[in-house]
Amino acid sequence: MSPALTSTIGQDDLRDYFLTLSDLLCRVEVTSQDGQRLEFADAATALMGRARTTHAAGNKLIFVGNGGSAAIASHMATDYSKNGGVRSLALNDASMLTCLGNDLGYDRVFAKQIELHARSGDLVIAISSSGRSANILNAVDAAAAAGCTIATMSGFTPDNPLRRRGAWNFYVGSDRYGFVEIGHLTICHAVLDFLCGLPTPARPR
């Protein structure tokens, strides 16, 4: 029998797991395109403001990601549109991905869509746990060429190349997919909640 099926989870294990996650969320790092450290609150406020002005100017938010990050992209495009009132989309249509992957290669599946649909003034949010996915890096290059503003979310190693591609680069300092993905989702939701004007929740005592 697999060890995973016979092991047990203790109360201390659960507490340590959630405390580790909480600590990672409290220590999210944000840097500018030139590598300068930014205050998280300032960067989140700037991203929120850019989302508002992007929509007001008739432009849109574009979310891109692979795997779990693709799920975050779809989730956020839905929530930012419906709840935030900000024009948003995710480039995850299955037919489009398989068409472009087959014809151009998987490393071009997002870049080509950005070339087709992005316009100057759009805001592209690129999500990659490793910060090294070729198709995400190519998408960011295409977005820059189109005159889009870029925000990135990454993790794993602090020197990943995606961290230098955005005006705001949010980094979750863990090498575990679950922690990094939860961190990215939480950052996106935090920006959205403040965008919607929701009150800051009271801390449990």
Biggest pleated-sheet summary: 7 strands, mixed
Helix fraction by DSSP (H/I, runs of at least 4): 40-55%
| Overall spatial form | globular
Structural class: alpha/beta
Unreliable stretches: none
Give an account of the 3D structure.
This protein has 205 residues and is an alpha/beta fold. It contains eight helices and seven strands, in the order ααββαβαβααβαββα. It has helices spanning 3-6, 11-26, 40-56, 68-82, 94-104, 109-117, 134-145, 177-195, and strands spanning 29-31, 37-38, 61-65, 88-90, 123-127, 149-154, 168-171. Strands 2-1-7-6-5-3-4 form a seven-stranded mixed β-sheet, sandwiched between helices. Strand 3, helix 4 and strand 4 (88-90) form a beta-alpha-beta unit. Helix 3 (40-56) crosses helix 8, helix 4 runs parallel beside helix 8 (177-195) and helix 6 runs parallel beside helix 7 (134-145). It starts with a helix and ends in a 10-residue tail after the last helix.
Topology of this protein?
Layout: H1 3-6, H2 11-26, E1 29-31, E2 37-38, H3 40-56, E3 61-65, H4 68-82, E4 88-90, H5 94-104, H6 109-117, E5 123-127, H7 134-145, E6 149-154, E7 168-171, H8 177-195
Quick overview:
The chain has 205 residues and is of the alpha/beta class. It is 50% helix and 14% strand. Strand 3, helix 4 and strand 4 form a beta-alpha-beta unit.
Question: Descriptors for this entry?
Answer:
205 residues; alpha/beta; 7 strands; 50% helix
